[in-house]
Amino acid sequence: MSTAEETAGGEREPWGEVAPDAARRLLVAAVEAFAERGYHATTTRDIAGRAGMSPAALYIHYKTKEELLHRISRIGHEKALEVLRTAAEREGGPAERLGSAVRSFVRWHAGQHTVARVVQYELDALGPESRAEIVALRRQSDAAVRGIIEEGVAAGEFTVTDVPGTTVAVLSLCIDVARWFKVNGPRTPDEVGALYADLVLRMVGAKH
Amino acid sequence: MSTAEETAGGEREPWGEVAPDAARRLLVAAVEAFAERGYHATTTRDIAGRAGMSPAALYIHYKTKEELLHRISRIGHEKALEVLRTAAEREGGPAERLGSAVRSFVRWHAGQHTVARVVQYELDALGPESRAEIVALRRQSDAAVRGIIEEGVAAGEFTVTDVPGTTVAVLSLCIDVARWFKVNGPRTPDEVGALYADLVLRMVGAKH
DNA sequence: TCCGAAGGTGAGCGATCGCTTAGAGTGCCC
DNA sequence: GGGCACTCTAAGCGATCGCTCACCTTCGGA
After folding, report:
1. Nucleic strand D contact set for B 27-66 (CB, < 7 Å)
2. What gap in Å lies between CA A121 and CA A138, rounded to an integer?
């Protein structure tokens, strides 16, 4: 795998684009709190406390608690989509590209599982217009995966009868990693990614 | 498939064992509310209102709001485990039994997706002792699936290198159905179950 | 040297939360 | 008919929530 693939999506500096410093610290604190307790169970006092600030300081940088969730969701989804696309658009046949996409996407959901948990499981807490924006990003992930599967079927490399259904299953499998992955568990994000890439290639009946 | 397999887990009368009538109505209302908005975003006034009662009536039948979630989680997990085991213990080879187990388990998570959503995604809202009880039930589901896969590998019918990892992936795939399944979507619970059974048999490299 | 913008705090407002209490209605057994 | 257990309601308590306001500090530029 290439170096570009490894660092795509800013896995090293997840929130480097957020400024100023206090706003970034609040956002990082919110990600931790939301991932641990969930959006509704997290208080603004808890977020501010984790960032080493008073409760009122939060409202200098963000209008509401929901805006914090919205910013986290949008940036997180964009990172995940970037990771997926970078791997999906590399050179090679459908099997190589699907395997690479799943490996990268899963590695991101495992390695950044706190962000991923918020991004994937707290969507309902957003208002209608914010949620619509995020759903649009999600559809692009779906289209990217479905595109490779369709290509593989057309090229005779995959044997899939229900392409939309298999696409949903593949994405569901990858996303749910964020729910069960534990940092102190028996597997590294890399190992889970490799396992899942193999499983998905079996699901689409890839010839090897 | 057998009639026993179709009705296992009380898919027709999900809360028939809960008495008296008012307690069951409150529990059904809580399932709906928790599934729609999440545990922490649901108020006791909302639950009582859906059941057509005053807020205070809730505390005649349940000590706290958390006890309601605990009861829902325990009963729901027991139903899901019963569905899984009934299908897993039927006659036939590993491939037939794994396919049957996945089909039934997925059909339950799709058909009872409101219950399943609460049961699978609101676990963190439970206290330590309640959560431990539920986690124990979940381990039994894991053991049931892993058992079949190990059997299939031993019999030379499956080709799986990482049995625990594949088991986690299979269960994750099935459980996450509760998150994305929509009643008015393009597929019935039966259809999703059939699709997923096929996908899982491919994942384990079942010979056919 | 003075000033205004920017970033921060302590105190607290109005609303709403989970939950409790006092008492009323109902049916069943003697 | 009287007593009692059970079920439910109206009212509201104390705590905590998201968020606001008045005020303080810091600092770069004219």
Report:
1. 48, 52-57, 60-61
2. 13
pLDDT tens track of chain A, all 208 residues? 444 455 555 566 678 777 788 899 999 999 999 999 999 999 999 999 999 999 999 999 999 999 999 999 999 999 999 999 999 999 899 999 999 999 999 999 999 999 999 999 999 999 999 999 999 999 999 999 999 999 999 999 999 999 999 999 999 999 999 999 999 999 999 999 999 999 999 999 998 7
In a domain, A191, yes or no: yes
Contact between B38 and A40 using a beta-carbon 8 Å cutoff = yes
Mutate to test the interface with A, among B113, B202, B203 (most CBs of A within 10 A): B202
CB count in 10 Å sphere of residue B75: 19
Interface of A with B in 161-190 (CB under 8 A): 162, 164-166, 168-169, 172-173, 175-177, 179-180, 186-187
Q: Are B179 and B133 in contact (CB under 8 A)?
A: no
Q: What is the CATH number of the domain that holds A167?
A: 1.10.357.10
Identify which of A196, A159, A202 has the alpha carbon closest to the alpha carbon of residue A180.
A196
Indicate yes or no: strand C within 7 A of the C-beta of B37: no
Separation in Å, CA of A140 to nearest CA in chain B: 16
* Alpha carbon distance B77, B122 (integer Å): 12
B206 to chain A, any CB pair closer than 8 A? The answer is no
- In sequence order, the 6+-apart residues with CB closer than 8 A to the CB of B74 are B133, B134, B137
C-alpha distance from A98 to closest chain B C-alpha (Å)? 15
Query: Would you say residue B161 has pLDDT above 70?
Result: yes
- Domain of residue A88 covers 3-203
User: Tokens representing B37?
Assistant: 């908005």
Asked whether residue A41's C-beta has any atom of DNA/RNA strand D within 7 A, the reply is: no
Number of domains, chain B: 1
Q: Nearest residue to nucleotide D6 when comparing alpha carbons to its C1'? A: B60
Tens of pLDDT along A44-103?
999 999 999 999 999 999 999 999 999 999 999 999 999 999 999 998 999 999 999 999
Residue B38 lies in a domain: yes
B53 in A contact zone (CB under 8 Å):
no
The span from the CA of A39 to the CA of A31, in Å, is 9
Question: In this structure, is residue A44 part of a structural domain?
Answer: yes
Establish if A17 belongs to a structural domain.
yes
Quick check: B174 and B120 in contact, CB under 8 A? Answer: no
pLDDT tens by residue, B54-106: 999 999 999 999 999 999 999 999 999 999 999 999 989 999 999 999 999 99
